[in-house]
Amino acid sequence: MTALPVPAPARPGPLRWVRPAAVLVIAAVTIGIPLWLVAVTSVKPQAEAIKPNLSLPHHVQAAENYQQSFDQGKMIQGFVNSLLVVVPSVVLVLLLGAGAAWVFARRKGRLVGALYALSISGLLLPPAVITIVMELRQLGLAGTQWGMIAVYTGMYLSTSIFFMTGFIRNLPEELEEAARMDGAGPARVFFQVILPLLRPVVATATIMVMLFAWSDIFYAFFVLGGGDKATLPLNLYQVANAQLYLNNWHLIFAYVVMMSLPMVAVFVVAQRRVVSGITSGAVK
Amino acid sequence: MADTATVGVTDANSRKQAHGSTPHTPRRRPRTRSDQPWWFALPALAVFGVFFLLPNLLNFVYPFTNWSAFHSDIRFAGLSNIRSILQDGSMLRDIRITVEYAVLVALFQNGFGLALALLLERDTRFNRFFRAVFFLPVLISALAVGYIFRALLAQDGALNSVLSSLAGHQVDTPWLGSTTWTLVVVTLVHGWKWMGLAMLIYLAGLKSMPGDVLEAARIDGAGGWRTFWSIRFPLLAPAVTFNVTTALIGSMNTFDIVQATTAGGPGSETEVFNIYMFRVFGQGLYAQASAMSLVLFLIVVVLAVPVIVGLRRRENNQ
């Protein structure tokens, strides 16, 4: 078999352009076309958008579509509702996870090992969504934001405990020792020594939780339901479900654009953090 | 250390570290019980226990009751729910479909991710820009991704109209209406959504390759193809484990993409577990939905966990 000289140095001659050209074509077809479809459909009038296609709009009515979608989709309410459940969940996952990870990383023994194994079982096991509803009803938390926060926190604690325990084990214990010698109690050691050192892995855990919780509809459906507690993606589902019967693709895609922009904006601003956060946590 | 390998996700690095560092730490103040008090772990254990473990335990009870929207009380009902999901064929069908879905997603997500990582491996400004471009689908919510592809792949949708103008005659392939191929199409969409994440993980793996090993291979006259399969790919094992794990677990819990593209159709041929639970719960048959949730739990434990533990072992043995 003829060996293809793969990555290392830049290839000489005309072949040097093969790879960038391939990248451009793949990006245009796989990313460009779907995003173009969204953008172009979101500014068309209903008659043109009824059969979604890639052609340019004959008549642009961006402002109307976005305004209508914004109002019907209760954009602001959805955004606030999403923030109200996702932000506390992330904070709890990080704070509670860090406390547990500290104990699991430093203490030794059979019980510690068993509890650690149990705590990270949520990495693999699926949440039992049906009985969660049952339990929340009995606790009086069904349909409340507190219930949703508790469920998300329970679901993602395993991820943060796993990442943070691995991270703390690699931290030199001397730093804690030094603080203890100065007479610091456990609470001060945790909040002033451990938590600040956790910054890189906090980024990883935050991103992982955000990627899933911000766009979740499945669990939100069971716990929050529709109504005035609905999160942003849940609103999209309700808007889309109503609009699909009316063939209002232009309104659906206007909503998709508005809903996706915050995440894309966060990524563009914090791109390097996000990338290094994901990769440093996953593969060491 | 307790046998965390049964869970399959021990941190290999920290194990190495623990082995390496214990011998040469000199005298040290003896560890006291109160250095890391248990109450730091208690809140996490409580929340995890009450809102994750307890529901999973209850999930072994409620499938055997008559819990539904139609009774005010909940009574023991034996195996009637299991029997009814067995007899209407939904249990075996959903197991088959979910497993096929998970395997295909693991293939596509990793295949696309690895190909993109190799394509964009060199650290140029051009490549960095396109890495960000391929990461965009990860940021769009899965539900939105589903609607985008529903518009693209509908019978009178964008793809068929492009194909029609290319072919010069009317093309109306029912991309989302085939009882055989639609599952593959939906898993391709799922792979598309997450390929950017797999790409980043593979890029990190490629970057951490020891330069001297690759250099030695080059001096020994190994070509690019040979170097990739016998050196670089085996060294990617941790990245493969991570990506296959997230793909398997993510796809077994999938809902949004399937709901938005096909809602389980045509003829239930893309009905994964979560679609079934959602539908049946909506009909008020809570115990029956809980029975399917138990089946999902068992399938993950019986099929996905051994694969992940196996990958982890393979990686540690290298």
Automatic annotation (TrEMBL), chain A:
Q: Does the keyword Transmembrane helix apply?
A: yes
Q: Give the transmembrane region(s).
A: 21-39, 79-104, 111-134, 146-168, 189-214, 249-270
Please provide one cellular component term from the Gene Ontology annotations of this protein: plasma membrane
Keywords on record = Cell membrane, Membrane, Transmembrane, Transmembrane helix, Transport
Topology relative to the membrane, per the entry?
Multi-pass membrane protein
Q: Name one GO biological process term.
A: transmembrane transport
The UniProt entry, under InterPro entries, shows:
MetI-like, MetI-like_sf
- Where located? Cell membrane
> Is the Transmembrane keyword given for this protein?
yes
Kindly report the protein's main subcellular placement as a broad class.
Answer: membrane
Looking at the record, the residues that make up the ABC transmembrane type-1 domain are 79-270
**Family per record:** Belongs to the binding-protein-dependent transport system permease family.
Please identify the protein, giving its name as recorded.
Sugar ABC transporter permease
Q: Which organism is it from?
A: Streptomyces griseorubiginosus
TrEMBL record, chain B:
Compartments (UniProt record): Cell membrane
Listed under GO biological process in this entry are:
transmembrane transport
One Pfam short name: BPD_transp_1
Q: Which GO terms describe its cellular component?
A: plasma membrane
CDD domains, alphabetized: TM_PBP2
Among InterPro entries, the record links this protein to: ABC_transporter_permease, MetI-like, MetI-like_sf
Chain spans, region Disordered: 1-32
- Record's keyword terms, sorted: Cell membrane, Membrane, Transmembrane, Transmembrane helix, Transport
Transmembrane ranges, per UniProt, are 37-58, 101-120, 132-153, 181-206, 227-249, 285-311
Q: Is NADP included in the keywords of this UniProt record?
A: no
Q: What membrane topology does the UniProt entry give?
A: Multi-pass membrane protein
Asked if the keyword tRNA processing belongs to this entry, the reply reads no
Highest taxon of source: Bacteria
Tell me which residues make up the ABC transmembrane type-1 domain.
95-307
Q: Which family does it belong to?
A: Belongs to the binding-protein-dependent transport system permease family.
Kindly provide the name given to this protein in its UniProt entry.
ABC transporter permease
Q: Which organism is it from?
A: Streptomyces griseorubiginosus
